[in-house]
Amino acid sequence: MAEAYCPASCGELLQGWIFGGEKLISCPINWYSRVSVTLGKPGQNERPRMRQMLRQVLAHFGEPPLLAEKICIEFESTIPVAKGLASSTADIAATATAAARLLGKSLNDEALARLCVALEPTDSTIFKDLTLFDHQTAQTRRPFSWLPDIDIVLLESSQTLITAEFHQRNRHSFLLKQAPNLAKAMQQFCLANERRCCYRLGEATTLSAIASEATLPKPQFHQLLDIVEHSGIYGLNVAHSGSVIGLLFNRHQHDLDRLLHTLHHKSLIQYYPQTHLVKMVTGGVR
């Protein structure tokens, strides 16, 4: 038996038209998809893309395709689906790594990225560092070594959105229109990384979230912006192809109880009925 697990992402820190094409920087958090593969009859506890990835890994290593019929995939996941939390990326990346381990092999970052984007747009949670990534072609990968000490109030609405379907929409004109704002966001992100400044990071993520409103508006978004401004937390980020929002803060510097009270007092919980406290973590498949 071989196992692997990959983190979720609370939306994206940035996503949009950056350096001549659409790219993103994911926000890995401490929710995971855990996949185990064993030699045996395929069971029922798997998702379709997991089996597709298994076949890709076998082909990558020159193994016979029929071997897939003798491999059982099982998984456990704490990641809600179709919300912009990178659940599918976590599933397929963990499957790829577990399958490689079962074969006595390993996948480097480049090979894993190519395998994942061959199936679907892929979040940069597959990399250890925060990474600017071309999630559709894997041709751009720029890592940042800083892991900010950030807690997140994750606001989950009841809305769902299939990421692959979202990327089939014609968003080109919207992306180009917001490119200057994303350039500012990227500049702030680079400064945040250079200076290890969470407040500047929050400025960057908030700029990207505001730009995302043009293509995928979030309920009560401007009220949430007001809360960020008046509470003094770092900022907010969104799922640019999903429905979740993250309020970025540090529990040792900011008043979590007051923040949650404000969300209830302003009746925002009716729009985001599930509220979770999560933590930004190192990315990559374990």
User: Kindly, what is the distance between the CA atoms of the first and last residues, rounded to a whole number of angstroms?
Assistant: 15 Å
| Gross CATH architecture of the largest domain | 2-Layer Sandwich
> What's the overall geometry?
globular
Q: What share of residues are in beta strands? A: 25-35%
Question: How many domains make up the 3D coordinates?
Answer: 2
CATH class division of the largest domain? Alpha Beta
Helix-strand string: EEHEHHEEEHHHHHEEHE
Sheet with most strands: 5 strands, antiparallel
- Overall average residue pLDDT: 97
Radius of gyration: 19 Å
Number of strand segments: 9
H/I helix tally: 9
Q: Within the CATH hierarchy, at the fold level, what is the topology of the largest domain?
A: Ribosomal Protein S5, domain 2
By helix and strand content, what is the structural category? alpha+beta
Helix amount: 25-40%
Enumerate the spans where pLDDT stays under 50 for 5 or more consecutive residues: none
Question: What does this protein structure show overall?
Answer:
It contains nine helices and nine strands. With 286 residues, it is α+β, with helices and mostly antiparallel strands. It has two domains: 142 residues, Ribosomal Protein S5, domain 2 (2-Layer Sandwich); 132 residues, Alpha-Beta Plaits (2-Layer Sandwich), CATH 3.30.70. Strands 1, 2, 3, 4 and 5 form a five-stranded antiparallel β-sheet that branches. It has a four-stranded antiparallel β-sheet with strand order 7-8-6-9. A hairpin with a 7-residue loop joins β4 and β5. The chain is globular and about 60 Å long.
